[in-house]
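Researcher: Batch entry, complex prediction.
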Amino acid sequence: MTQILLLIALVIFSILTVLLRDLLKAAISLAVASIFLAIIFFRMNATYAGVFELSVVAGLITVLFISTIALTKGESDVRESKVVRILFPIFFVLFIIIDIVVMKALINRLMVVRYPAPIGNFGQVLWGQRTLDLVGQIGVIFAGVFAVIALFRKRGEK
Amino acid sequence: MVFTFILVPLVLASLMPLIGKISKRFLPDVLTNITLLFLLIYSITIGRQIISSGTGIRQLVWLGQQLNITLALDGFSLLMLFLISLISFTVGLYCINYMEHYGSKAIFYALFLLMITGMNGLVLSTDLFSIYIFLEVAAVASYALVAFGLGYDELEASFKYLMLSTVATAFILISIALIFGFTDSLRLHDVALAFQLLNTKYLVGLCMALFIFGFGLKAAIVPFHAWLPDAHPSAPAPISAMLSGVLIKISGIYAITRIFLNVFGLNPAISTVLMYLGVISILVGAIIAFSQNDIKRMLAYSSISQIGYIILGIGLGTPLGILGGLFHLFNHAIFKSLLFLNSGAIEQATGTRALDKMGGLAKRMPITAATSVVGSLSIAGVPPLNGFWSKLIIIIALVQAKAYGFAIVAVLASVITLWYYLIIQRQAFFGKLNETWKDIKEAPFWMSASMIILAMICIAIGILFPIILKSWLAPATNVLSAGVNYTINLFRF
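Model: Structure tokens for the complex:
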């Protein structure tokens, strides 16, 4: 029951993040949503995922968002179409219905194959068995950093 | 060592900003192009070994300590690796001249090399999650490259591409999570085996649907194509060539083909879905391309149309269909890159992409015009150029499989393709020279050289196609035709 309440809270704060027009409030509700997600991770024994979710997503990213929002000025107010506000709830409800139907059908009908779990603790699995992913992660980080350098370079250089 | 294909561009990319401090242009140009040439030669040498030995699976053990970087190189991934190396090498040459006026060449090359790292990693991965990570490496680099010009259109296109791509990766990730939940493994071998044991068509259906959304968006199959006509024209021309020529094929078609044919197994239902998606893409792409005035936008819509042919061939699932699909994929990468490079040369010389403002450019830009004619005739499927053979094989495969309706559409769309490419030729290169352009010059040396190389390859493949089919395409087709059993028997590490 607690799990379901936590999931509902997670969904509600996620929706608020999308629908709130004030960026600051949206960033904060995103942080709250990820705190709930972190709690769910902890409860499901994914402690490392919980720690990362809490420290990086709820902590670091929120700080980045809020400092960026503080640095920008609200002069250029962009008009948003109202269609989104009408369409979003419709799609959301539709999605929930499809999700429930599909998952119910799947979970009741399916067998599950269990391969033996990787041997070793978190660090051994991460460094010993997911090494290629770490190489990929280095690539993603470099790409992100270079993207920032490229997009924020002086326009005069063009 | 197959890991070189990931490591070398990654290391050079990470050093590039430092190299850029020492020398703004010369060193980045030289080092990038030497590296790309090395990768091209290496892919050919390693390819010859694999083709002659028949199999080609490698596991990497580093410095005596098991780091478990498992990579696999077989006929299919080899073809892709060779294609990435070939196109990136010619595009790299083109960049020497073309990227001069954009500034920050070192950062540009760093992003370019990271995109190549991502694609190479994706092709060599044997694990669903690694595929996802390398997909992101290539994608993040490509968002920045699309917006590299920093103009309004570029930034808007890049943002749209980023948003839609994020939706695509969300679908892919959901599907991977589902598979992991039900099979407890992410390795392609384990997943393929588990699905054979489970025999659950519902789960397979759901995962396939999610993958079609995700990878279909990456490959810009209609109806998931909305981002491509903005992103590809807005990017600098060499990047358009990379995106249309290789990236959509690796992150979309390679991934979907590998997973559907070698992991899930192609069933009649999914085959039909893919064929319909293919034929819709062919028609929609061709019809919209027809009415474009912006040359790069026309080429972008044409990519959607040609991707449709590839999906149609591979979706058919017969060995001949797969062969045709892969051959067309290979050819399309070459001539579409060539055509985008041509459009870049025109844009650089005239400052415009609008076809109605051009005219008679062949008199001033003979190399660009000649290579563009080769590219256009190839893509339209005029014999004896390479596009003719691949389209012919797809159409023969369709007729053999008694899919006459699809075959007729494929032929008709080919005629439309010829039509709009003739429009490009007539409006841009032939006719009376527009007075405004009387002082323009032919593209600089390296740009011309890379266009000539690609045009020569189009002609060479057209003439030597039996050799190419036998040496490079047959091993790839064998991998895909063997279906799930291939992964179960040969991806066991």
